[in-house]
Design goal:
single chain; alpha+beta; Cyclophilin; two-stranded antiparallel ribbon; 28% strand; globular; disordered N terminus
Length: 194
């Protein structure tokens, strides 16, 4: 077999091999994982910076800053999702950084076990609060009739039984808040594990 290279064949061959090497390295890389320790047990989430770079960076900064430690799952809706990351057990909202831009058009869907960013009606308002889908929620996927959706940025890879325990707890109203667990479900710590 004969290979024809025009110009500097050595540099072209090295470039071709280099591209193959980096492609293989990309396949070997694993997604970062975060371990949640809660008052009901532990679960791990892997996050996808290649799909939602701004969202993952934002989330991991909150993790590194220990923002989530001592917060609670403040909104639990069996048959929908469990939400946390913004309130203490006495329903005091924690201070947050500036919002992150919506990245909902990344191909990831709000399916069972995925983690997504909570936000207000403003699509670019997500800060620290996240939710874990406990059922498939196609109504949260982009594009919505308004052109938006909710940014999925990872999924639960172990401990989904703990998330299912959270979804099943008794809830009620607490002041202006609805679907609040009657017994607080505390996020003891969140740490990058991989």
């Amino acid at each position: 077999m004969h290979f024809a290279f025009q110009g500097n064949w050595k540099s072209k061959l090295c470039a071709a091999l280099g591209l193959s090497f980096w492609a293989l390295m990309g396949l070997a890389q694993t997604a970062p994982q975060v371990l949640f320790k809660t008052s009901l047990g532990e679960f791990s989430v892997e996050v996808y910076p290649n799909k939602a770079p701004k969202t993952v960076d934002n989330f991991l900064r909150y993790v590194k800053d220990k923002h989530y430690d001592g917060t609670v799952f403040h909104r639990v809706m069996d048959g929908f999702m469990v939400q946390g990351g913004g309130f203490t057990a006495d329903m005091k909202q924690k201070l947050t950084r500036e919002p992150v831009a919506l990245e909902a058009m990344n191909g990831l869907k709000n399916e069972v076990g995925t983690i997504a960013m909570a936000r207000t009606g403003d699509p670019n308002s997500a800060t620290s609060q996240f939710f874990i889908n406990v059922v498939n929620n196609p109504g949260l996927n982009a594009p919505q009739p308004d052109g938006y959706g909710y940014t999925v940025f990872g999924k639960v890879v172990s401990g989904m039984d703990v998330v299912n325990k959270i979804r099943a707890v008794p809830v009620g109203n607490q002041g202006m808040f609805q679907n609040v667990p009657r017994t607080p479900i505390t996020i003891v710590s969140v740490n990058l594990s991989k």
